[in-house]
Amino acid sequence: MYKEILSDRMENQNQVLEQLRSVFRSGITIPAQFRLSQLNQLMSMIQENEEVILKALHQDLAKPKFEAIMSEVDIVVNELHFAIANFTSWMQPEYVSKNLATKLDDCFVRREPLGVVLIIGPWNYPLHLLLLPLVSAIAAGNCAVIKPSEVSAHTDRLMAELIPKYLSQECYTVVRGGAEETTSLLQLRFDHIFYTGSQAVARIVMRAASVHLTPVTLELGGKCPCFIYGRVDIAAAARRLVWSKYFNAGQSCVAPDYVLCSPATRDALLPALRQTLEQFYGKEPQKSPDMSRIVSDRHWTRLMELLKKTSGKVVVGGESDQEDKYIAPTVLVDVNEDDALMAEEIFGPILPILTVESVEEGIDLMNRQEKPLALYVFSDEASVVNTVLERTSSGGFCSNDGIIHMCLPTLPFGGVGTSGFGSYHGRWGFETFSHRRAVMLRGWALERLNGLRYPPYQENKLSW
Ligand code: NAD
Fold this sequence. Notes:
With 464 residues, the chain is α/β, with parallel strands linked by helices. 45% of the residues lie in helices and 17% in strands. It is built from 16 helices and 18 strands. It has helices spanning 2-26, 32-48, 50-61, 65-91, 128-139, 153-166, 179-186, 199-212, 234-246, 263-281, 297-309, 359-368, 382-391, 426-432, 447-450, 459-462; strands at residues 94-95, 106-113, 116-120, 143-147, 172-174, 192-196, 216-219, 224-228, 256-261, 313-316, 320-321, 326-327, 330-333, 350-355, 374-378, 396-399, 420-421, 434-441. Strands 10-13-14-9-8-15-16 form a seven-stranded mixed β-sheet, sandwiched between helices. Helix 3 crosses helix 4, helix 3 packs antiparallel against helix 6 (153-166) and helix 4 runs parallel beside helix 5. The protein is globular, with a radius of gyration of 25 Å. Nicotinamide-adenine-dinucleotide (NAD) binds next to helix 7 and helix 8. Nicotinamide-adenine-dinucleotide binds next to helix 7 and helix 8.
């Protein structure tokens, strides 16, 4: 029975894919005018439905309106503006330098769409992380299957309702579902898979993609350190750290995962963190409209298990309410490198502070971890910032702030090592969804010179 359901589902999905493929082959997505109309339609979709989008995000994660506008709606609108203003120039052939043998040829790189791409989104920024890659895919002239996360169920439903109303149904299809539906989708042959989510599922995606040799972009997570060292404005550091850590209740792939600092900095930071948390969320953060909730009971339980297993000491927060999927903004000290909190990405409002005695020790500790998606250094001393920048590796790097580097569409956004590979945003996303075709247009001139490379070969031809 189960096998039958699976094969029926695959059959349906395959039909959808074949229709998209034949529409892609018709060339409808190629003209700039078509791409522009779809980007404008996506803009209208966001702008005309902002209220319902904000409502769905609130139902899924209790996202505060301000955070939802900033990190979901506006970021998509900005990406759209940027793509609309620039994609025709990105489409232009890129002429390359030539050598003597190709002097008379036209040699250029031509960006061509890949075909039908699959975009799989996560639940933590269910609008942003689904639509940003879609903007790039459309700008680059592809057709797409879009799979929102079933965990953020309200946004998932809304996307399935809105996208077909605004975008060409011939070219873009939303497929809904969880692991089962995605598993059968992944058996089909796409021209590219763009996956955002956990490392565990990324392995499944990559294995499935290998069957068809489908290229993949993997936008994953990791443990993003925040190294605080030397001269620092502690009050400002606490505000920027608290904001970037507890934004969306810590459920951001680029949230600072842990703090590394000297014992003296920790002692100065703790009262500043307490004070900032109270300023931001009041004495009872559970009552604050600015504190999101954990997305699901499963994730709430996972985070509470981590708090049970840790040998660290809770010095701020620690309260929780399962019914409300609430965990207070929490800070822990006395956390060691082999603690449960250091074994996986936390992805919640829990911040361990680890101490080190020197920049060297901090760099060594960060380098013993897998390469993170982002690495933050808070310091007034350029030598500290530059030393860490030079001696570590991460998807992105930002000094004296958190998260904010990912809002600039001229910077690539993506991981390295286990935090993922490939990148997007702005032109980087256009490149991800384009094939760079090497083109040499040659005429028939100088045929006599070609005699030098035709057989019969003679030694003296080599010295030419
Ligand atoms: P997830 O991997 O559980 O889910 C992501 C997507 O995969 C969903 O659409 C889901 O339906 C699908 N999926 C789940 N199980 C599957 C299976 N067995 N087979 C096939 N598909 C399956 O990830 P998540 O929990 O939604 O997201 C959290 C993780 O994503 C964190 O590790 C976070 O760091 C990472 N993340 C990374 C970025 C980034 O831009 N690099 C952004 C957000 C989240």
